[in-house]
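Bug #77: duplicate submission created two jobs. Keeping one. Sequence:
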Amino acid sequence: MKGSVLIAGFATRHVAQSAWKAGYTVYAVDHFCDQDLSWYTADRLKFDDLEELPDRIAEMAGRHRADFFVPTSGAETLGPPFPLAGTDPGTAARLLDKLEVQRFFEREQIPAPPLAGEGDFPYIAKPRCGAGGWRNAVIRSGEDLARWREENAGTEPLLQELVPGTPASVSCLADGRGHAVALAANEQILRGCGANPFGFTGSVTPLSHPLAGQMRILAMRAAAASGCAGSAGVDFVLGAEAVAIEVNPRFQGTVDTVEAATGISLFSLHLDACQGKLPAELPLPGCTAMRGILFADRDLVVEEDLAPLAPAVADIPWPGTAFEEGQAVVSVLGTGKDREEAFQDLDNILNKLKRYMGR
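Kept job's structure:
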Protein backbone atom coordinates (compact mmCIF):
# COMPACT_ATOMS: atom_id res chain seq x y z
CA MET A 1 0.00 0.00 0.00
CA LYS A 2 1.10 3.58 -0.69
CA GLY A 3 0.24 4.86 2.77
CA SER A 4 -2.77 5.52 4.97
CA VAL A 5 -5.41 8.22 5.12
CA LEU A 6 -8.16 9.21 7.54
CA ILE A 7 -11.20 10.59 5.70
CA ALA A 8 -13.94 12.25 7.73
CA GLY A 9 -17.20 14.02 7.03
CA PHE A 10 -20.90 13.62 6.49
CA ALA A 11 -20.42 11.33 3.47
CA THR A 12 -17.07 9.72 2.65
CA ARG A 13 -17.73 6.65 0.49
CA HIS A 14 -16.92 8.36 -2.82
CA VAL A 15 -13.57 9.63 -1.51
CA ALA A 16 -12.74 6.42 0.35
CA GLN A 17 -13.38 4.39 -2.80
CA SER A 18 -11.10 6.67 -4.84
CA ALA A 19 -8.35 6.47 -2.20
CA TRP A 20 -8.66 2.67 -1.94
CA LYS A 21 -8.44 2.29 -5.71
CA ALA A 22 -5.31 4.48 -5.62
CA GLY A 23 -3.68 2.00 -3.23
CA TYR A 24 -4.13 3.64 0.18
CA THR A 25 -5.23 2.13 3.47
CA VAL A 26 -8.34 4.06 4.41
CA TYR A 27 -9.92 4.86 7.77
CA ALA A 28 -13.23 6.74 7.75
CA VAL A 29 -15.56 8.64 10.04
CA ASP A 30 -18.93 8.86 8.33
CA HIS A 31 -22.59 9.62 9.05
CA PHE A 32 -23.95 6.70 7.01
CA CYS A 33 -21.33 3.92 7.15
CA ASP A 34 -23.04 2.21 4.24
CA GLN A 35 -22.18 -1.36 3.32
CA ASP A 36 -19.83 -0.45 0.46
CA LEU A 37 -17.85 1.93 2.67
CA SER A 38 -16.76 -1.22 4.54
CA TRP A 39 -15.33 -2.60 1.30
CA TYR A 40 -12.88 0.28 0.96
CA THR A 41 -11.89 0.94 4.57
CA ALA A 42 -9.76 -0.88 7.11
CA ASP A 43 -11.78 0.71 9.93
CA ARG A 44 -14.69 3.13 10.20
CA LEU A 45 -16.77 4.94 12.80
CA LYS A 46 -20.32 6.25 12.50
CA PHE A 47 -21.66 9.50 13.92
CA ASP A 48 -25.23 10.79 14.10
CA ASP A 49 -24.94 14.57 14.57
CA LEU A 50 -22.15 16.80 13.31
CA GLU A 51 -21.47 17.84 16.91
CA GLU A 52 -20.16 14.30 17.47
CA LEU A 53 -17.75 14.44 14.54
CA PRO A 54 -14.68 15.91 16.34
CA ASP A 55 -14.86 13.25 19.06
CA ARG A 56 -15.23 10.45 16.52
CA ILE A 57 -12.25 11.76 14.57
CA ALA A 58 -10.20 11.85 17.77
CA GLU A 59 -11.31 8.30 18.57
CA MET A 60 -10.26 7.03 15.15
CA ALA A 61 -6.97 8.92 15.37
CA GLY A 62 -6.36 7.16 18.68
CA ARG A 63 -6.89 3.79 17.03
CA HIS A 64 -4.71 4.29 13.95
CA ARG A 65 -1.91 6.50 12.72
CA ALA A 66 -2.48 7.94 9.25
CA ASP A 67 -0.22 9.76 6.83
CA PHE A 68 -2.93 12.24 5.80
CA PHE A 69 -6.23 13.66 6.96
CA VAL A 70 -8.80 14.45 4.25
CA PRO A 71 -11.99 16.28 5.27
CA THR A 72 -15.26 16.02 3.36
CA SER A 73 -18.52 17.92 3.91
CA GLY A 74 -18.99 18.90 7.54
CA ALA A 75 -15.33 18.46 8.53
CA GLU A 76 -13.73 21.21 6.42
CA THR A 77 -13.15 23.59 9.33
CA LEU A 78 -11.96 21.06 11.91
CA GLY A 79 -8.38 20.88 13.09
CA PRO A 80 -6.62 17.91 11.46
CA PRO A 81 -5.25 15.13 13.71
CA PHE A 82 -2.67 14.25 11.01
CA PRO A 83 -1.01 16.22 8.20
CA LEU A 84 -3.81 17.88 6.22
CA ALA A 85 -4.31 16.96 2.58
CA GLY A 86 -6.78 19.62 1.59
CA THR A 87 -7.75 23.24 2.10
CA ASP A 88 -6.76 24.74 5.45
CA PRO A 89 -9.65 25.22 7.92
CA GLY A 90 -9.48 29.03 7.90
CA THR A 91 -9.74 29.26 4.13
CA ALA A 92 -12.47 26.61 4.09
CA ALA A 93 -14.49 28.54 6.70
CA ARG A 94 -14.33 31.68 4.57
CA LEU A 95 -15.44 29.82 1.43
CA LEU A 96 -18.30 28.08 3.24
CA ASP A 97 -19.73 31.51 4.11
CA LYS A 98 -21.88 32.36 1.07
CA LEU A 99 -21.71 36.10 1.72
CA GLU A 100 -17.92 35.92 1.80
CA VAL A 101 -17.98 33.95 -1.45
CA GLN A 102 -20.22 36.62 -2.97
CA ARG A 103 -17.65 39.26 -2.06
CA PHE A 104 -14.86 37.01 -3.36
CA PHE A 105 -16.54 36.68 -6.77
CA GLU A 106 -17.05 40.43 -6.91
CA ARG A 107 -13.38 41.11 -6.09
CA GLU A 108 -12.24 38.66 -8.74
CA GLN A 109 -14.75 40.08 -11.27
CA ILE A 110 -16.39 36.70 -11.72
CA PRO A 111 -20.10 36.99 -12.63
CA ALA A 112 -22.35 36.07 -9.70
CA PRO A 113 -26.05 36.62 -8.88
CA PRO A 114 -26.57 40.10 -7.37
CA LEU A 115 -27.76 40.32 -3.80
CA ALA A 116 -31.47 41.02 -3.36
CA GLY A 117 -33.39 43.08 -0.86
CA GLU A 118 -36.20 41.53 1.17
CA GLY A 119 -38.83 43.20 -1.03
CA ASP A 120 -37.21 42.44 -4.39
CA PHE A 121 -39.44 39.47 -5.23
CA PRO A 122 -38.83 36.91 -6.56
CA TYR A 123 -35.39 35.88 -5.29
CA ILE A 124 -33.69 32.89 -3.77
CA ALA A 125 -33.05 32.52 -0.03
CA LYS A 126 -30.29 30.21 1.13
CA PRO A 127 -28.54 29.65 4.46
CA ARG A 128 -25.43 31.76 4.68
CA CYS A 129 -23.59 28.57 5.67
CA GLY A 130 -24.49 25.09 4.50
CA ALA A 131 -24.06 22.64 1.63
CA GLY A 132 -26.14 20.63 -0.80
CA GLY A 133 -28.82 23.23 -1.56
CA TRP A 134 -31.46 21.46 0.52
CA ARG A 135 -32.65 24.59 2.34
CA ASN A 136 -32.55 26.93 -0.64
CA ALA A 137 -35.96 28.26 -1.68
CA VAL A 138 -37.54 30.68 -4.12
CA ILE A 139 -39.17 33.57 -2.25
CA ARG A 140 -42.09 35.21 -4.04
CA SER A 141 -43.75 37.06 -1.16
CA GLY A 142 -43.31 38.26 2.38
CA GLU A 143 -45.22 35.19 3.52
CA ASP A 144 -42.69 32.94 1.76
CA LEU A 145 -39.82 34.71 3.51
CA ALA A 146 -41.52 34.45 6.91
CA ARG A 147 -42.11 30.74 6.32
CA TRP A 148 -38.46 30.22 5.34
CA ARG A 149 -37.28 32.00 8.48
CA GLU A 150 -39.61 29.89 10.64
CA GLU A 151 -38.43 26.63 9.04
CA ASN A 152 -34.79 27.69 9.38
CA ALA A 153 -34.91 29.32 12.79
CA GLY A 154 -31.58 30.72 13.91
CA THR A 155 -30.16 30.60 10.38
CA GLU A 156 -28.98 33.77 8.71
CA PRO A 157 -30.18 33.89 5.07
CA LEU A 158 -28.43 35.14 1.97
CA LEU A 159 -30.84 36.65 -0.55
CA GLN A 160 -29.86 36.60 -4.23
CA GLU A 161 -31.59 37.48 -7.46
CA LEU A 162 -32.96 34.50 -9.37
CA VAL A 163 -30.81 33.43 -12.30
CA PRO A 164 -32.54 30.96 -14.64
CA GLY A 165 -30.43 28.37 -16.41
CA THR A 166 -28.75 24.99 -16.23
CA PRO A 167 -27.16 24.01 -12.88
CA ALA A 168 -23.54 23.04 -13.48
CA SER A 169 -20.15 22.74 -11.84
CA VAL A 170 -16.47 22.42 -12.62
CA SER A 171 -14.22 19.95 -10.81
CA CYS A 172 -10.87 21.68 -10.30
CA LEU A 173 -7.49 21.01 -8.78
CA ALA A 174 -5.71 23.86 -7.00
CA ASP A 175 -2.24 24.01 -5.48
CA GLY A 176 -3.04 26.62 -2.81
CA ARG A 177 -0.41 28.90 -4.38
CA GLY A 178 -2.45 30.70 -7.02
CA HIS A 179 -2.63 28.00 -9.68
CA ALA A 180 -5.44 25.68 -10.71
CA VAL A 181 -6.66 23.44 -13.54
CA ALA A 182 -10.17 22.43 -14.56
CA LEU A 183 -10.57 18.65 -14.77
CA ALA A 184 -14.20 18.31 -15.80
CA ALA A 185 -17.37 20.28 -16.46
CA ASN A 186 -20.44 18.63 -14.95
CA GLU A 187 -24.17 18.98 -15.16
CA GLN A 188 -25.79 19.05 -11.74
CA ILE A 189 -29.08 17.24 -11.31
CA LEU A 190 -31.31 18.99 -8.77
CA ARG A 191 -34.57 17.75 -7.30
CA GLY A 192 -36.46 20.48 -9.14
CA CYS A 193 -39.78 20.22 -7.28
CA GLY A 194 -41.32 19.56 -3.89
CA ALA A 195 -40.06 20.93 -0.60
CA ASN A 196 -36.37 20.93 -1.60
CA PRO A 197 -36.17 21.85 -5.29
CA PHE A 198 -32.48 22.85 -5.14
CA GLY A 199 -31.29 19.66 -3.40
CA PHE A 200 -28.43 17.87 -5.19
CA THR A 201 -29.56 14.52 -6.60
CA GLY A 202 -26.81 13.61 -9.04
CA SER A 203 -24.46 14.66 -11.83
CA VAL A 204 -23.53 14.10 -15.45
CA THR A 205 -19.92 14.23 -16.69
CA PRO A 206 -19.01 15.72 -19.11
CA LEU A 207 -21.46 18.58 -19.52
CA SER A 208 -22.39 19.41 -23.11
CA HIS A 209 -23.30 23.10 -23.20
CA PRO A 210 -22.27 26.14 -25.29
CA LEU A 211 -21.04 27.91 -22.14
CA ALA A 212 -19.00 24.96 -20.80
CA GLY A 213 -15.73 26.47 -22.04
CA GLN A 214 -16.43 29.88 -20.52
CA MET A 215 -17.42 28.20 -17.27
CA ARG A 216 -14.15 26.23 -17.11
CA ILE A 217 -12.10 29.40 -17.53
CA LEU A 218 -14.01 31.19 -14.77
CA ALA A 219 -13.75 28.16 -12.50
CA MET A 220 -9.97 27.99 -12.92
CA ARG A 221 -9.71 31.67 -12.03
CA ALA A 222 -11.87 31.18 -8.96
CA ALA A 223 -10.09 28.03 -7.78
CA ALA A 224 -6.66 29.59 -8.28
CA ALA A 225 -7.57 32.72 -6.32
CA SER A 226 -9.53 30.92 -3.60
CA GLY A 227 -6.60 29.54 -1.64
CA CYS A 228 -7.93 25.99 -1.99
CA ALA A 229 -5.52 23.07 -2.04
CA GLY A 230 -6.40 19.82 -3.80
CA SER A 231 -9.85 19.03 -5.12
CA ALA A 232 -12.16 22.05 -5.28
CA GLY A 233 -15.42 22.65 -7.09
CA VAL A 234 -17.10 25.77 -8.41
CA ASP A 235 -20.88 25.73 -8.93
CA PHE A 236 -22.57 27.71 -11.70
CA VAL A 237 -25.87 28.48 -13.36
CA LEU A 238 -25.60 28.63 -17.14
CA GLY A 239 -28.13 31.04 -18.60
CA ALA A 240 -27.32 34.08 -20.71
CA GLU A 241 -23.79 33.70 -19.33
CA ALA A 242 -21.96 31.50 -16.87
CA VAL A 243 -22.78 32.79 -13.37
CA ALA A 244 -20.81 31.47 -10.39
CA ILE A 245 -22.75 30.40 -7.30
CA GLU A 246 -20.41 28.72 -4.79
CA VAL A 247 -16.91 27.40 -4.18
CA ASN A 248 -16.61 23.98 -2.53
CA PRO A 249 -13.22 23.66 -0.77
CA ARG A 250 -13.23 19.84 -0.71
CA PHE A 251 -14.12 16.79 -2.74
CA GLN A 252 -17.52 17.14 -4.39
CA GLY A 253 -20.39 14.74 -5.01
CA THR A 254 -19.27 14.51 -8.65
CA VAL A 255 -16.28 12.24 -7.84
CA ASP A 256 -18.02 9.11 -9.19
CA THR A 257 -18.98 10.60 -12.56
CA VAL A 258 -15.69 12.45 -13.06
CA GLU A 259 -13.66 9.29 -12.46
CA ALA A 260 -16.00 7.10 -14.55
CA ALA A 261 -15.99 9.51 -17.49
CA THR A 262 -12.27 10.29 -17.53
CA GLY A 263 -10.62 7.20 -16.02
CA ILE A 264 -8.48 9.34 -13.71
CA SER A 265 -7.63 8.73 -10.06
CA LEU A 266 -9.00 11.89 -8.51
CA PHE A 267 -7.57 11.04 -5.10
CA SER A 268 -4.04 10.68 -6.50
CA LEU A 269 -4.36 14.00 -8.33
CA HIS A 270 -5.72 15.57 -5.13
CA LEU A 271 -2.66 14.53 -3.12
CA ASP A 272 -0.34 15.74 -5.87
CA ALA A 273 -2.09 19.12 -5.96
CA CYS A 274 -1.80 19.46 -2.19
CA GLN A 275 1.96 19.05 -2.67
CA GLY A 276 2.02 21.73 -5.37
CA LYS A 277 1.94 19.43 -8.41
CA LEU A 278 -0.81 19.99 -10.98
CA PRO A 279 -1.24 17.71 -14.02
CA ALA A 280 0.46 18.89 -17.19
CA GLU A 281 -2.25 17.30 -19.35
CA LEU A 282 -5.98 17.33 -18.68
CA PRO A 283 -8.02 14.14 -19.08
CA LEU A 284 -10.35 13.71 -22.01
CA PRO A 285 -13.66 11.96 -21.27
CA GLY A 286 -13.93 8.50 -22.76
CA CYS A 287 -17.66 8.25 -22.11
CA THR A 288 -20.52 10.05 -20.41
CA ALA A 289 -21.23 9.06 -16.81
CA MET A 290 -24.38 9.80 -14.84
CA ARG A 291 -25.15 9.39 -11.15
CA GLY A 292 -28.67 9.58 -9.77
CA ILE A 293 -29.77 9.29 -6.15
CA LEU A 294 -32.84 7.19 -5.41
CA PHE A 295 -34.99 8.71 -2.65
CA ALA A 296 -37.58 6.88 -0.59
CA ASP A 297 -41.10 7.65 -1.85
CA ARG A 298 -42.51 6.41 1.47
CA ASP A 299 -41.27 5.11 4.80
CA LEU A 300 -39.59 1.80 4.04
CA VAL A 301 -37.09 -0.82 5.17
CA VAL A 302 -34.56 -2.18 2.68
CA GLU A 303 -34.68 -5.87 3.51
CA GLU A 304 -32.74 -7.03 0.44
CA ASP A 305 -28.97 -7.10 0.13
CA LEU A 306 -28.25 -4.73 -2.78
CA ALA A 307 -24.53 -5.58 -2.86
CA PRO A 308 -24.87 -7.90 -5.90
CA LEU A 309 -25.94 -4.87 -7.96
CA ALA A 310 -22.58 -3.12 -7.48
CA PRO A 311 -20.85 -1.33 -9.17
CA ALA A 312 -24.03 -0.11 -10.89
CA VAL A 313 -25.23 1.00 -7.45
CA ALA A 314 -23.28 2.67 -4.66
CA ASP A 315 -23.88 4.00 -1.14
CA ILE A 316 -25.46 0.61 -0.49
CA PRO A 317 -27.48 0.33 2.74
CA TRP A 318 -27.12 -2.65 5.02
CA PRO A 319 -30.06 -5.07 4.84
CA GLY A 320 -32.67 -4.02 7.38
CA THR A 321 -31.91 -0.29 7.15
CA ALA A 322 -35.01 1.89 7.63
CA PHE A 323 -35.62 5.07 5.63
CA GLU A 324 -38.15 7.82 6.10
CA GLU A 325 -39.96 9.27 3.11
CA GLY A 326 -37.64 11.63 1.25
CA GLN A 327 -34.36 10.18 2.52
CA ALA A 328 -31.64 9.09 0.09
CA VAL A 329 -31.56 5.30 -0.24
CA VAL A 330 -28.88 4.46 -2.81
CA SER A 331 -26.92 5.94 -5.73
CA VAL A 332 -27.31 4.56 -9.24
CA LEU A 333 -24.54 4.89 -11.85
CA GLY A 334 -25.00 4.80 -15.63
CA THR A 335 -22.60 5.24 -18.54
CA GLY A 336 -22.85 5.62 -22.30
CA LYS A 337 -21.36 7.32 -25.33
CA ASP A 338 -23.51 10.41 -24.70
CA ARG A 339 -26.00 11.82 -22.19
CA GLU A 340 -28.98 10.05 -23.74
CA GLU A 341 -27.29 6.66 -23.66
CA ALA A 342 -26.01 7.20 -20.10
CA PHE A 343 -29.50 8.17 -18.99
CA GLN A 344 -30.96 5.05 -20.60
CA ASP A 345 -28.37 2.89 -18.84
CA LEU A 346 -29.13 4.56 -15.51
CA ASP A 347 -32.88 4.16 -16.06
CA ASN A 348 -32.46 0.46 -16.83
CA ILE A 349 -30.46 -0.03 -13.65
CA LEU A 350 -33.00 1.97 -11.66
CA ASN A 351 -35.86 -0.21 -12.92
CA LYS A 352 -33.88 -3.35 -12.09
CA LEU A 353 -33.18 -1.96 -8.62
CA LYS A 354 -36.86 -1.24 -8.00
CA ARG A 355 -37.81 -4.75 -9.09
CA TYR A 356 -35.04 -6.16 -6.91
CA MET A 357 -36.46 -4.25 -3.96
CA GLY A 358 -40.00 -5.35 -4.76
CA ARG A 359 -41.20 -1.81 -5.41
